[in-house]
DNA sequence: TTCTTGTCACCTAGGTGTTAATAT
DNA sequence: ATATTAACACCTAGGTGACAAGAA
């Protein structure tokens, strides 16, 4: 079984409608897709990999006036289907289970001719990341058992729209009460990225310890946990 | 067969008497041990690893007045013998031969209780790095063939003295003629490290393009090549 | 209009020798 | 005296969103 790390953060992004930047050179995902694995054969070899499937056959655009996504027509031609093998593959089950598995080398691009092995996506389309565990069958005729030698895990909270620039970038001030906006999903993706991604710290205009205070009671205690811990415990998930 | 990369740089250090810093936290080697491999079975799996063996049973000290190393007695008790597996191990022969194999994750420490998996060495002792290629035998009784399933390569020009601070740190000015000092091996290790290690650029007091000019005719054309190229061609070596 | 691209300042993360203080 | 340690300024290397300019 597989447990998604940083689930609380993924949930917060998902409520707003997660957007992931794609660039010609390739851009990492944030949040990074990270998992904990359980129940593998410690001595057996496994390959870990990810791919991305379209959520639907639509193209989207963002309406700034209504701050919402609209269908803008049928999907563009599908991009070359690629997979990203975790660089530690293959490795023993014991190795994979020993610590959190992080796909932080995975990069997204909109360059159809990319030859860096990055994942190619259409901008303004929605995607569902998938995580696959492949058992490396030592038998000679292992091809015959291919169907039963892998398992796929899908976390719906990791869905996102690929964009070349953030669309939903409503700003928020430090002291602003977000109760209403969180509920209706209208707060800015950009601000959440800036607040939670260490590499974007340069754009923070207030102390990160300031704004967990603004969360209404009952809200996910995500930012406080995120700000203080480098190894936070995420809720278990069973796809 | 194996070819040592940056051989010209190793040679220049070796002439001076290479010193490698060891710290409690672990310090990388410079130059980095890098090799090109040839003649592997492209489809077979190999493990690549390094270890370090004492050159002799002596302890050394550096005499500043005569600028030379002296024997200071018998060697201290041997450190725990460790090996460093290249992190890409195991991988196919084709993968290893595709590009230069770099051991830049290898770190040296003098902490006898190190639990980061670093190589433990005695300061003020001389060591010989060794490089091992292990064929991963697919046969069930592979242990029986262990003796014939690996090959060891030794490059004598990579020998060094482990130190906690550079001993031979004679300074040299930018325009200084080094003919005499290079021949007798009395120029400073520190200056060569500063000149050739990109991470030490902050300590350079003259343009790196300045001092290849000072090399006497017939000297190794190393620094000019090093300064300009990120993928320099090293001389072939056959241990 | 709407979307994409390239450049930039500002970060994280970590590899250098220096230096002063400490140990032996 | 000699050897080691820890804090430090200064680098490399690369991940951020902002912004202005360009493309469709």
Question: How are the elements arranged and paired?
Answer:
2 copies of one chain form a homodimer.
Chain A: E1 2-4, H1 7-16, E2 19-21, E3 27-28, E4 34-37, E5 45-54, E6 58-63, E7 68-74, E8 84-85, E9 91-92, H2 93-98, E10 101-102, E11 107-109, E12 119-120, E13 126-135, E14 150-154, E15 160-163, H3 179-184, H4 189-196, H5 222-228
Parallel strand pairs in A: 2-15, 11-12
Antiparallel strand pairs in A: 1-4, 3-11, 4-10, 5-8, 5-9, 5-13, 6-7, 13-14, 13-15
Chain A binds a DNA duplex (24 and 24 nucleotides) through strand 3 and helix 4.
Report on the architecture of this protein.
By secondary structure, chain A is α+β, with helices and mostly antiparallel strands. Chain A is 15% helix and 27% strand. Chain A has five helices and 15 strands. The first copy, chain A, has helices at residues 7-16, 93-98, 179-184, 189-196, 222-228; strands spanning 2-4, 19-21, 27-28, 34-37, 45-54, 58-63, 68-74, 84-85, 91-92, 101-102, 107-109, 119-120, 126-135, 150-154, 160-163. In chain A, strands 2, 5, 8, 9, 13, 14 and 15 form a seven-stranded mixed sheet that branches. A three-stranded antiparallel sheet of chain A has the order 1-4-10, with no helix packed on it. In chain A, strand 6 (58-63) and strand 7 form a beta hairpin. The first copy, chain A, binds a DNA duplex (24 and 24 nucleotides) through residues 21, 23-24, 27-28, 30, 61-62, 110, 123-124, 163-166, 169, 190, 193-194, 197-203.
